[in-house]
Amino acid sequence: MVGTGSKIADKLRRSAGFYAAIAIACWATVATAFKWALADLTPAVLLFIATTSAIATLFLLLMAAGKRGDLFSIPLKTLPRAALLGFINPFLYYLILFKAYSMLPAQVAQALNMIWPLVLVLLSIPVLGQKIGWMGILAMFVSFAGALFIAIQGDPLALFREGLHIKNPWGVVLAMGSAFLWAVYFLFNMKNKLPDDISLFLNFLFAWVYLVLFLLVKHLAGAEDSELIPPGVSLRSILSGVYIGIFEMAVPFIIWLKALKLARNTAVVSSLIYIFPFLSLILIHYILGEPVFPSTVTGLVLIVGGILLSRFSPAKKAPEKNVSF
Fold first, then answer.
1. Rounded to a whole number, what is the distance in angstroms from the first to the last CA of the chain?
2. Which of 16, 150, 188, 207 is the most exposed place for a label (fewest CB within 10 A)?
3. What are the C-alpha distances in Å from 217 to residues 15, 44, 85, 223, 290?
4. Do 243 and 26 touch, CB atoms closer than 8 A?
């Protein structure tokens, strides 16, 4: 019996679904952590704490994987692209995403950020010359209709009774802007020649430098929120920032890469990622105490449905990289 159990456990550890489930479980918790951290921290300070934690975690993971030689023999010609990628993500992407979370209910910010695959399809038309079929157009219509439902933050039928009335429009713009930045990052990353884990580490290193300069400029300009550790900040907020760096930015991405590497069909595994926003809603409701809007559930179903529908589009797809979360 012991031998049988050991074989089952070993087989489980080798399965793509096992690693995908761990990554999804990590990502399902981070919307709650965002709100806890942002209760006392500014988006820039939160990103500094999270980025520092992510760099340390990624470095340890690379060392554990025996990639010390690869890390210290990175070609210099790859650094400009890494600097650009790091500026887009995590620097700009998370600054804007955290600002959106500070202005919107967690469920709304998270759901609106989920439209990035559709933004990617739109950007692929002019950038990659990709043609889109009628099913792709229908998929975008369905998903963006879902975004409209989410933006009203309440009764989904109000969209038909009262017309479009967006609450916190600036927060909605920021949340959708973060989706745009992630899609741009994906397009630039497609031509990246470095291994994904090493590239991710470099991106965070450059982002850390940008953040230090950003915070320094704010401090010299006398901004009220320029203090690295604001007075009265709670330990929960700081620990949430560390948690975000480890379990949003570092560990789940490496685990997800492992899942895709083991997968027989990467499209099937990639589709599993759309489970996490629904799991996250449960935590948002029971831990943060947010009432889940019917419009959020309706909108999420439409967004995810549209994304999955786009996979059946007969249009030629752009080449995929393993970081297409």
1. 38
2. 188
3. 47, 12, 22, 9, 36
4. no
Q: Give the three-state DSSP class for 300.
A: helix
Most confident of 142-151, 241-250, 263-272, 290-299: 241-250
pTM score, whole prediction: 0.89
Q: Are 82 and 196 in contact (CB under 8 A)?
A: no
Contact 135, 313 (CB under 8 A): yes
Instruction: Judge contact between 30 and 244, C-beta under 8 A.
Output: yes
Instruction: Compute the residue count for the chain.
Output: 325
d(CA 47, CA 98): 8
How far apart CA 252 and CA 33 sit, in angstroms, is: 15
Burial (CB < 10 A; 0-12, 13-18, 19+), residue 228, is: middle
- DSSP string for 252-292: HHHHHHHHHHH-S-HHHHHHGGGGHHHHHHHHIIIII-PPP
State yes or no: cis peptide before 90, omega within 30 of 0. yes
Nearest in space to 31 (alpha carbons), one of 92, 95, 89, 108: 108
Integer Cα distance of 51 and 30 in angstroms: 14
> What would the two tokens of residue 157 be?
């039928």
List pLDDT tens digits, range 53-82: 999 999 999 999 999 888 888 999 999 999
Q: Structure tokens of 74?
A: 């990175």
Give the Å distances, CA to CA, from 132 to 124, 181, 325. 9, 21, 21
What confidence tier does 323 reach under pLDDT thresholds 50, 70, 90? very low
Q: Which residue has the tokens 């399902």?
A: 28
Whole-angstrom distance, CA of residue 117 vs CA of residue 306: 10
Residue with tokens 């951290």: 37
User: What one-character DSSP code corresponds to residue 293?
Assistant: P
Tell me the C-alpha to C-alpha distance, in Å, between residue 171 and each of 108, 174, 182, 232, 270. Answer: 9, 5, 17, 26, 28
Place of tokens 């890469």: 257
